[in-house]
Design goal:
Blueprint: H1 2-27, H2 29-63, H3 69-86, H4 90-100, H5 105-129
Amino acid sequence: MFSTLALLFIVVPMLELYLLIKIGSYLGSFNTIALVIITGVIGAFLAKLEGLRLLHAIQKDLSEMKMPGDKLIDGLLILVGGVMLLTPGVLTDLLGILLIIPFTRPIFREMAKKKFTSGMKKGSVKIINMKLK
């Protein structure tokens, strides 16, 4: 757990800062700042469009009495992608775009499903052994 937090709060921002400095040395500071702002605005717009499209698909599934399992995971991925796009940086923007684009999202969906499944299997032992009062 600590290594994950260290990665998120120390290593990733350091890499982002390094990349922004390198990009700034090639493009100039104004263009680099403009790039970060433009990716944030475009990312928020894409996240909104994909989120609304997905919301309509979930509503359609529910009205047809279907369980929208994969679509709910997609919604979570779009939310995370939107947050990453609003976070200044190149790596987070790249990952955010990959999470929002419909044809790359299934890769991340399958990774999330595996993570959820393994977490449920680990937690299922505790649930079975729990006594209800």
